[in-house]
Amino acid sequence: MTANKPIDDLIIIGIDFGTTYSGIAWAYSREPDEIELVTSWDAQLDHCTDVAKAPTQLFYDKDNATTWGYSIPPAKDALKWFKLLLLEEVDIPVDLSNSVQLREARNLLKKSKKNAIEVVGCYLRKIWNHAIESIHRSVGVELLQKSKFHVVVTLPAIWPDYAHERMRRAAKISGMLDARPCGKTILVFVSEPEAAALATIKDLSKRSTIKKGDTMVICDAGGGTVDLISYVIKSMNPFVVKECVKGDGDLCGGVFLDEHFIKLIKRKVSAGSWENVSKAQERKFLNDGWEHKIKPQFSDSNQQRTWLVDLPDSCGESSNRRTKRRKTLELTSSDLVSVFAPVVDKIETLVRRQNQAIQMKYGRSAKYIVLVGGFGRSSYLYNKLQSTMEATVLQSRGISP
Fold first, then answer.
1. Burial of 385 (0-12, 13-18, 19+ CB in 10 A)
2. Nearest CA to 141 among 180, 174, 185?
3. Sorted alphabetically, which SUPFAM superfamilies does this protein's record hold (predicted)?
């Protein structure tokens, strides 16, 4: 994996199209190391305007007008998870296919009278137009108009060929491939772990502990999919790596935790009381108490810690003695391990399988396991792999292009 310095005026635009969140980064060919993240999203919530990614969500009103990302009011029935609808049902695990979230996505897709390709194309158009406006403000109209576009879109490594073709059709619908006076726009697909590896390897190359012959597993744990790709370092100067064993992956990303968490809450409250909770209230509950609170913070390192969640007003009293007052539920670390363990155990199996392939080929384990992606920031996932694998586990905690 090496990089060639382009000569022409190019704007390289990378689109990380995720199951739950999506983002865009770009660079100008004459300043390839100056990578810019697109932010400044239109938002209903003030704290979401300048973050690295926007929700992969759409809302169609009765007149078929579309809002997207953070601009969707919290109470609206947003269409989510539509990335996975590009797959045939036979290629989706049964438990995921039957999940509340995917059933709701199919119902909203049917109500919109559109197919999955059209919906993905609509979302890509929204995020693309936002990105072009952001680039316009940064470089000016003259440079924007004279520069060809080279667009790189990430896709799960495990996706079949037909899904790649559907994604290409969605990209065409989005307008990103429309004719421009300066020349044809080039579109390429890159596997999500390969894209993550490009950024990660650049950082690793600067470390004094890295040497020729070292191997590493890149584990890209996103919202829907977890993809793995492994590399061996072929040369230090120039720094060159090569894929060393066949990649792997599965549908076991962070969204699967949501289903387990809701099931946990339903077990904790009195029988039937969750039936009073509307879909909008459930979404707000997940967003406030789970997605931005427990889910990113939980680690089993402190077994004595408890977590408080505020139940929706429409939920009845809890049957659990740990309920504080009437609307606050106390969860133990053991409760939350029951949410994380089934999903994280699948990821551990994938990593272990990848490491075994490296051992078979090189006679030694991988030196590093590198966690990237949204779910890759999970403290629980990090601790689990660090305690069970021989390799050093590295985890990105910040935001990078």
1. buried
2. 180
3. Actin-like ATPase domain
Please list the residues that pair with 230 across neighbouring strands. Answer: 217, 245
CATH number listed for the domain at residues 192-401 = 3.30.420.40
For residue 195, is pLDDT > 60?
yes
What confidence score (pLDDT) does residue 178 get? 95
Answer yes or no: is pLDDT of 324 > 50.
no
Residue-wise DSSP of 99-163: SHHHHHHHHHHHHHT--HHHHHHHHHHHHHHHHHHHHHHHH-HHHHHHSEEEEEEEE-TT--HHH
Cα dist. 133→8, 126, 272 in Å? 22, 11, 49
Label the pairing between strands 58-60 and 31-37: unpaired
Residues composing the chain: 401
pLDDT in tens, 237-249: 877 888 899 888 8
Fold matches, 10-184 and 192-401? yes
Task: Pick the closest to residue 280 from 104, 43, 68 (CA basis).
Answer: 104
Q: Which two tokens stand for residue 266?
A: 């339903």
Query: For residue 12, what pLDDT is reported?
Result: 94
CATH class of 10-184: alpha beta
The residue ranges of every structural domain in the chain are 10-184, 192-401
Confidence of residue 363 (pLDDT cuts 50, 70, 90): very high
